[in-house]
Design a protein that fits this description.
The relative contact order is 0.16. The chain starts with a strand and ends with a helix. The longest helix has 12 residues. It is an alpha/beta fold and 209 residues long. 38% of the residues lie in helices and 20% in strands. The chain contains eight helices and eight strands. Strand 1, helix 1 and strand 2 form a beta-alpha-beta unit.
């Protein structure tokens, strides 16, 4: 194993602080961390299917490992569940069941307005400005599995103070998949305050450690 594909989260980018932290750390061990841009056309046209197509291009059918954050963690599980050539899967605060959870979080009335308008404005962390997010993201996501079953060795990191994705979804997932280990931290959704602590178990998880 000498290549890992890193999948950034919603409204994030390959230049995120966390992505670049791990890229630099893996480089010290001679491991390439590829970080594709999962939203090259902006957020208004973003879909799970479109992002998975980008993951497939990045993986090139090879025995890569996947490492994803938030929505990227969910994408890693979805992709690995149908691609047995994937070697290992690391998920950080994975956004399991994000479409149903997201619409439930904003409420039925707001979700209806979003659906009728076709888009809603949300912060784009890449630019710091509001951006349109298309409702097609939700429509496209609904047919995908809530908890994609992977057979590869898996590792989940989640913060117990996560206010975006409840850490208990990761507890549930790990309990149902004995091939997946879960490590909880006293941290929020981004996990940026514990990247050094995450790095140590990553070294043990991958063969180069």
């Amino acid at each position: 194993m000498n290549r890992i594909v890193y999948l950034h989260g919603f409204a994030s980018s390959p230049q995120s602080k966390k992505a670049q932290f791990f890229k630099e750390r893996f480089a010290r061990h001679g491991v390439a961390l590829d970080i594709p841009d999962l939203s090259p056309d902006g957020l208004e046209r973003l879909t799970i299917s479109g992002q998975l197509a980008i993951v497939e291009q990045a993986a090139r059918g090879e025995a890569v490992s996947l490492m994803g954050s938030s929505m990227g963690g969910y994408l890693a599980a979805v992709y690995a569940s149908t691609h047995p050539e994937v070697y290992r899967v690391v998920m950080m605060a994975p956004a399991f069941d994000f479409a149903r959870r997201w619409t439930a979080r904003i409420g039925e009335e707001a979700a209806t307005r979003w659906r009728e308008a076709g888009f809603v404005e949300m912060p784009d962390y890449r630019t710091g400005a509001p951006a349109r997010v298309g409702y097609s993201l939700i429509d496209d996501a609904l047919p995908y599995p809530t908890f994609p079953a992977i057979e590869q060795p898996g590792l989940i990191f989640h913060g117990i103070r996560d206010e975006v994705v409840d850490y208990r979804s990761s507890v549930e997932y790990a309990a149902a998949h004995p091939n997946v280990r879960l490590q909880l931290f006293d941290a929020g959704h981004e996990l940026t305050e514990v990247t050094d602590e995450i790095w140590r178990p990553l070294l043990r998880f991958f063969p180069f450690g």
